[in-house]
Amino acid sequence: MRYKVVILLFLTLLLSSCGDADKEATLEGESVVVAVVNGAEISQFDLDLAIRKLVGAEAATMMDEAATKKVLESMVMSRAISQLREKEMNALEKAEIAKEVAVFREQLLVRRYLAKHSPPQPVTMEMVQDYYDGHPELFGAKKIRMYEMITTKRALNANERDELLGKLQDPGKHGKWQDWAKELAAFGYPVTYRQGRDGGEVLHPKLNQVMGSLAPGQSSPLIFVKETPYLIRITSEENIPAQPLAEVTGAIKKALGPKQLKQAVEQVGKEALANAKVEYK
Predict the structure, then answer these.
(1) What residues contact residue 146 under an 8 Å CB cut-off, 6+ apart?
(2) What is the dihedral of CA 254, 258, 259, 265, to 10 degrees?
(3) Contact between residue 223 and residue 149 where contact means Cβ atoms under 8 Å apart
(4) Predicted confidence band at 223 (pLDDT cuts at 50, 70, 90)?
């Protein structure tokens, strides 16, 4: 977290030094110097801007002296680190930094243009409802299917397979498969009984496919996977509802926010390109 703060402050300080074209503009607090690092000044405006970036405009007004001092100390450290790095950079690295600053500046300009001319439309409750209804699985809605299975403890040889095939016919006639499996085991057949939840364990894809086609109470035909027989029956099914809309509205608005921003950018972009001379080479 501290590393991110340092990077943010570094960019803020770097940008504050790139305003040569606007020297005549007067920024509130720019003439008040709060720290000097190797001859480079940090102004009150720089400090106020950094605080707003870190905690927001509202919280910035409530920052006490101790917290403000910590921010300033971080800025001083950031400035000192950036100076050391700048000294050891070669021409190519400086050119790369200049390009990154230019990209960051362009992003700021786009955001400010949007804010002034075409702010993104707010996410409405109708949008939230549509998203909620269309993606219930994202908010916990799911179907839980319980199954029972009769299989063998190992793969069967040809004789065992032929003999057991006859014993495992008509699974629907047996109400309690667990008792059925015990009876078969008592006669020496290497069968075993299992219960589980669909998706609760890793099964062979063929078994998952078969289970997906079964309705509650329905049994599968005898299935062989790598010479091992399987009988499967869905014993119950329960629909788990999604979280209440009120609990996930904030998350949905956050998810839809970028979409609204994209639409705003596309709209403004079309208008900007209509009056721009563009050449692709």
Answers:
(1) 195, 196, 197, 198, 234, 235, 236, 237
(2) 150
(3) no
(4) confident
Q: Could you tell me which residues come within 8 angstroms of residue 181 by beta carbon, excluding any fewer than 6 positions away?
A: 150, 191, 192, 193
Percentage of the chain with pLDDT > 90?
Answer: 48
Residue linked to tokens 């607090």: 29
Amino acid symbol at 1: M
What is the C-alpha to C-alpha distance for residues 268 and 281, in angstroms, rounded to an integer? Answer: 24
Q: How confident is the model at residue 161 (pLDDT cuts 50, 70, 90)?
A: confident
Amino acid (one-letter) located at 190: P
For residue 205, give both structure tokens: 């894809």
Least confident range from 23-27, 61-65, 176-180, 239-243: namely: 23-27
How far is it, in rounded angstroms, from Cα 17 to Cα 11?
10
By C-alpha distance, which of 78, 77, 47, 42 is closest to 65? 47
The answer to whether the beta carbons of residues 145 and 234 sit under 8 Å apart is yes
d(CA 14, CA 163): 82
pLDDT for 39: 94
| 230-278: pLDDT as tens digits | 999 999 999 899 999 999 999 999 999 888 888 888 888 888 888 888 8
> If phi over 0 gives left and psi between -120 and 50 gives alpha, with beta otherwise, what is residue 118?
beta
Q: Is the pTM of this model over 0.70?
A: no
Alpha helices in 118-199 (DSSP H): 125-134, 158-167, 177-186
| Cα–Cα dist 162/156, whole Å | 9
